[in-house]
Amino acid sequence: MSKSPITSPLSDADKAAVGAVLQATLVDLIDLSLIAKQAHWNVVGQNFRSAHLQLDELVTTARTYVDQVAERAAALGVSPNGKAKTVAESSGVPEFPDNWLKVDDVVQAIVATLAALIQRLRARVDETDKTDLVTQDLLIEITKQLEEAHWMWQAQQA
Amino acid sequence: MSKSPITSPLSDADKAAVGAVLQATLVDLIDLSLIAKQAHWNVVGQNFRSAHLQLDELVTTARTYVDQVAERAAALGVSPNGKAKTVAESSGVPEFPDNWLKVDDVVQAIVATLAALIQRLRARVDETDKTDLVTQDLLIEITKQLEEAHWMWQAQQA
Amino acid sequence: MSKSPITSPLSDADKAAVGAVLQATLVDLIDLSLIAKQAHWNVVGQNFRSAHLQLDELVTTARTYVDQVAERAAALGVSPNGKAKTVAESSGVPEFPDNWLKVDDVVQAIVATLAALIQRLRARVDETDKTDLVTQDLLIEITKQLEEAHWMWQAQQA
Amino acid sequence: MSKSPITSPLSDADKAAVGAVLQATLVDLIDLSLIAKQAHWNVVGQNFRSAHLQLDELVTTARTYVDQVAERAAALGVSPNGKAKTVAESSGVPEFPDNWLKVDDVVQAIVATLAALIQRLRARVDETDKTDLVTQDLLIEITKQLEEAHWMWQAQQA
Amino acid sequence: MSKSPITSPLSDADKAAVGAVLQATLVDLIDLSLIAKQAHWNVVGQNFRSAHLQLDELVTTARTYVDQVAERAAALGVSPNGKAKTVAESSGVPEFPDNWLKVDDVVQAIVATLAALIQRLRARVDETDKTDLVTQDLLIEITKQLEEAHWMWQAQQA
Amino acid sequence: MSKSPITSPLSDADKAAVGAVLQATLVDLIDLSLIAKQAHWNVVGQNFRSAHLQLDELVTTARTYVDQVAERAAALGVSPNGKAKTVAESSGVPEFPDNWLKVDDVVQAIVATLAALIQRLRARVDETDKTDLVTQDLLIEITKQLEEAHWMWQAQQA
Amino acid sequence: MSKSPITSPLSDADKAAVGAVLQATLVDLIDLSLIAKQAHWNVVGQNFRSAHLQLDELVTTARTYVDQVAERAAALGVSPNGKAKTVAESSGVPEFPDNWLKVDDVVQAIVATLAALIQRLRARVDETDKTDLVTQDLLIEITKQLEEAHWMWQAQQA
Amino acid sequence: MSKSPITSPLSDADKAAVGAVLQATLVDLIDLSLIAKQAHWNVVGQNFRSAHLQLDELVTTARTYVDQVAERAAALGVSPNGKAKTVAESSGVPEFPDNWLKVDDVVQAIVATLAALIQRLRARVDETDKTDLVTQDLLIEITKQLEEAHWMWQAQQA
Amino acid sequence: MSKSPITSPLSDADKAAVGAVLQATLVDLIDLSLIAKQAHWNVVGQNFRSAHLQLDELVTTARTYVDQVAERAAALGVSPNGKAKTVAESSGVPEFPDNWLKVDDVVQAIVATLAALIQRLRARVDETDKTDLVTQDLLIEITKQLEEAHWMWQAQQA
Amino acid sequence: MSKSPITSPLSDADKAAVGAVLQATLVDLIDLSLIAKQAHWNVVGQNFRSAHLQLDELVTTARTYVDQVAERAAALGVSPNGKAKTVAESSGVPEFPDNWLKVDDVVQAIVATLAALIQRLRARVDETDKTDLVTQDLLIEITKQLEEAHWMWQAQQA
Amino acid sequence: MSKSPITSPLSDADKAAVGAVLQATLVDLIDLSLIAKQAHWNVVGQNFRSAHLQLDELVTTARTYVDQVAERAAALGVSPNGKAKTVAESSGVPEFPDNWLKVDDVVQAIVATLAALIQRLRARVDETDKTDLVTQDLLIEITKQLEEAHWMWQAQQA
Amino acid sequence: MSKSPITSPLSDADKAAVGAVLQATLVDLIDLSLIAKQAHWNVVGQNFRSAHLQLDELVTTARTYVDQVAERAAALGVSPNGKAKTVAESSGVPEFPDNWLKVDDVVQAIVATLAALIQRLRARVDETDKTDLVTQDLLIEITKQLEEAHWMWQAQQA
């Protein structure tokens, strides 16, 4: 069914613009949730337990916003796409290493991942200022959470 | 780090065999969790709410076993791989349609997905009978849950 | 007591403008809560139970924001008015049919009701941009929730 | 749909009599819930917080029985009507003042409101003694709760 | 032990009359709980999940009153009998079909079952008016719950 | 303050009659709660623990209805009196022995206490049939609970 | 509907064999739940309370597995039958005495009942070893729980 | 049974002294619990609700220590006596007025009651310093709680 | 360590501006939490209990935002400073009186404190409009909560 | 590491004395927890269930204080030793019989065990009066709990 | 209001002495709560997360006793003073460094802070032995908690 | 009582074999719980808190299976023996060092302890394949949990 069965409160142009922003954010966040789980299982080293637990909190954060972003798209009449293939092809998150990883390497990779995501989100906050304040509000909240997580992961590198 | 920092209670041969089984199951279950979420967001039609809720229960089931399967692999000294690319390339789950979907089409797709997964799981239960009873026990439990879900989704087609 | 015993952080003009917006929203939301309960009791037909439950969730959403909107008005020194007569006379929600109703008719009426409310809310979000950002933030949140509900009710018509 | 899709365990005459009693009670209780909320928002003065909280408990009581009364009507095959216009036109609850109100005035108004409601309910308990003991039981319970509330509000006037 | 070790607050005649009423109600309600479970497992068709869940709520209601009725009998010095054979031989509930059942057939069977039970209960409410008001009160409560359930199942046939 | 600050929904004659019934019930139930605690502390013998716990459940039951009975009196404009001296002078509960007590003696004393209380309550249920159905309803509920407790204590004597 | 709307992951022969095992277990467990309730209500004597409570735990255990066994059957495409008549005719549980029962007699009857059930279950664990490991796993778990209960009831006879 | 079935860890002299202290404290606290409930039901006036709630907290405090004091006596081989007659005859708590009471009068009476109790408790803390440190510890804790309650009731008189 | 170990998503100028706003807000809110506790302990007079409880809710509100503001600063690479000396020297909250305080004086002081805080917060909402929307969102939320509290404290002065 | 990495707030002499007291108490309590579990599993006879449950409460009590005692030692710079060999060699608890045990024999053994433990604890309360009031306070609390348990076990022998 | 509206159970001399002890303890504990929060926000380095969480537990401990100490003072008729200026001027806690801090430096500072607090508290335990046993009991409990925390922080330096 | 009062569902030979397996497992697991607590109290060093918490989770795991293993033995008619002396003499767990221990040494000791236990458990899983599938199932579950714990402790050595 390619014609949307859900009407949109936005004009066609705004709907297209906001839809693209939400779809890109959805893919980024699904990828973040998969990467954080991957790290959760493969981390090893002296601070194992602490990192293992903290990574699961990041998974929870990512999954929470995955759902809110997708349902916001649906509410605007835009079909969200979060399938594995879509994520593998269009995610903006940096490549994450395979296999077992030392705690320090995990910290470094997660800090880089979050930095990339935050930069992309801040651009989207600007983009939605003229098109949909409701979507902007959601993106601001995600940015806030990821910046807080970014601090907590960076704090371990000091 | 390609050499495993975790020792295995199994022989090398058994570890390789069981590791392959767990990795394949991990990929299948991650894919199931992504597909069920995809359906959760894109389903439309008269029974929308009921299907929308039931799909989220399937997501929860899939995620629970994703974690147990990956951690069982780690406990055996096998690094689990659950990244988006790996899932996109090696999942045994049938292709799921893009875009908005009618309830009946969702039911049909989920029934087919579960049937494929159960068949693959039953083969793996046999494979692990001689290699690792602990892993077999976990696979039996997953099979049981998916067969119960299969019944409940099928019951709607009657 | 017609002179307000509560001082306002806003100028007199802003207070009057924001007060009118909040009073209008209050009446709309009380009416929504009464209509959703009315439908909750009078719905009949094959999907009865699902609609019956979903309508009660809508009641809960409406009541939550009824309270927040009224208390926001009070916090600004504006006396809120949510009495039956006021609602009957000034609500902007479309007329809802009497008597028992088929599920499809309920869905159609609720979709229309929400569409009308969202349109009115989006206008108020714009109005408050220059007068009170705190109130605007609350209206954005209500809009988001009603647009999500709108999607879920529309999805059943597909 | 004006012909009731729900059969009644009562004779036609009893159903009509009990239905009228329930409809009148429903309207009274919805009005009570709206008035108690109105007072909850508009009360001011030295005992503000205590009255503010106690009024919300009254709202909760009223809403609980609103639902039970309406669903009892439905169970007897009588379509309940709780829309704003119906309440504004047929409620037996005394007029409640607009605008901010001193605590003492609120106490006085609530005591009077409850006294009126109790009197009407006791008459209905008698009316249902020959027609439907199940409905009578529900009305007795509501009477008990409102008489207890009446004592607690009166106690503040001593 | 055929002589009752529990004394009764009732006269012998009243005890015999009330005891018969409670024993008959006990059997009816156990049968209802078994039938609702039977339907819970065997229902199939488009509204499967909703019916499946609603049937389990009916099981819970039935089981709650099974216990209260039996313990009321015991409190009056009457030994309750809820064994399978007793239920099979003396239940007043209509025969329920074997095998898989479509949702519509289930709804029809449950509506008929509840109608039969309510009719029998209303007669017993009358019978106990002169013998034991405590038992009557319990029967009124059960009647209320079953009539509410009856409405909800009937509502799906509209 | 001897003139009641609480108005009564009953006529003066009914208020006096119902007030006397409630005051007598209040005293009986407070005495029951003190006796059950006394037994809770002084019971000894082979079944100590089971009796010790069961007695505390009886305390909880008694205290629950002490409060409801007293507040019902207050709601009718009758000042309840539950002071130690009042209880010592006017309770209708049989004398309870001092000092340590064997389990069997406790069971016997509690069975006798409950039998006496139930007999008095049943008379009061009859008395209130013409004066206040709300109070009657409460007395029926108390009777039911005490008759159930009576069975459970008697069952230990068999 | 006699043809199963649910496909089975098993061959026809295995499905028939496993289906028979599950149906027999279902009937046994429903009967156990009814017998344990019967005893819960009719037990009398010095240890009444302890036995009364322990019997209700047995009811809970039985009901838990009743549901799992029936749903396992459904998941395999076998319609479960748990109606009163079926239980009365095909249960393998020994006859349970009518009327009030002394604690010792209850203990003896429950010990015998559990012994019979365990023997039947152990045979079924063997039967399912070649047909369905998932079902076997469930039967092993039930056996474990009933053997633990058996110990606890036997321990009281020492 | 007048000879204690419970041995005491104390010498006979210490046991007698500590037993007397505990018995006196038990009676005082039961009386406090009855008086606080009496006030809870009979208080009227402008601050009714606040006093009504605060009195129930005092009941809870009193009941908690009633149990601990009685069980401490039992643990020392001293049979505690908390019957209505004992309380009426030996309590050291000042007489509490009958009938409805204004809030101020209640506050005054409770402040006086607590002052008397605290004075008696402080003397008992001294008495137990040489006889039983465990009992002393319990009395210190009760003193602390009552002195805190004393402050909170006094604070309302300022 | 004076060089920040946490990188900032903001430019240096924006970081300095937003950092100053957050630090000032942090100090104000810690001071509010200390003042509310001070009042919680020192309030006396007729409405003591109500004020005592309401002040603790204000402490909870203040502490919640203290933490969020400080962690937002850290997330931006700005070290927050909430030590006693810093609060004593830089808080913008008006001087709060020492010693015991009558309820009316507490209400007056809290109303003044909140008015001062709200005025300062509204200015900061404006300041952050061009520098960091994420921080602005947090400040809007705090303003909303404090304005609601302000209404509730003012309402008692009417 | 034999030199303590934890400094002590006590002098060396006091630390040695208090450390010995805590170590001895630790061993006694671990032994109590193992013995109570041993009895929990091996008890048989008519009161089985009651004793079985009561023994588990004793396990919980013992384990709670095991942890508090060991952590108190650590806080004083004394390394606690709770290994099986240490317990087997230095516990002051009387020998507990092997194999299945009748309820009466269990009661007798537990009463004797608790009597021995209480005697030892009371001596330690005296010893710590001059060395560490904090430790004394903990020992007083343990004594109180064990004396209460002692009463409850003795009460069954009466 | 400088004259205390709360009477004291202590003599004037004892009240002054105990009041000074409580006021000093109050200030120390408020300062501890602010310092622990300061560290919670500013800590960085390899064990960041673990320290971040452990610091928040210390905040909770400190806040719990802040309230109990202040309310004990009030109960004795002494007005507690916990304002920022008072804390800044009279706290006995060592100066805590500004700005970001490495984990090791935080551990060292917290260990020193707790050592200083424990030393001061132990002196106060001695001081209150002759003046108020109730206050002494509270100080002993605080000492116990801080010594346990001290061990846990020191354990990280080994 | 050396003759078992509990009958066994197994033959004498199987009962002896399975009994020996369960007794050995019981002793191993009790020892594990004591060792993990010992480490919980004596661990020191940089990662103290994380190790301290993780050790307590291991205690919980061990205690859970201690109970299940002992109760399985009892259910088979085998008296379990978990006394300190038995554990000290027959445990297969390696010697654990006395006194304070650095985190790394704790990790190493726990990894070795778990490795030894897992090896012994896997042998027992094989032994029970022909004797008791129910026991085997329990041992498989324990093995799974300990292998997962083994991974998590090993991961810290990488």
Automatic annotation (TrEMBL), chains A, B, C, D, E, F, G, H, I, J, K, L:
SUPFAM superfamilies: Ferritin-like. This is DNA starvation/stationary phase protection protein. Residues 21-156 form the Ferritin/DPS domain. It comes from Saccharothrix coeruleofusca. The lineage of its organism: Bacteria, Bacillati, Actinomycetota, Actinomycetes, Pseudonocardiales. CDD domains: DPS. GO terms for molecular function: ferric iron binding; oxidoreductase activity, acting on metal ions. It comes from the Bacteria. Belongs to the Dps family.
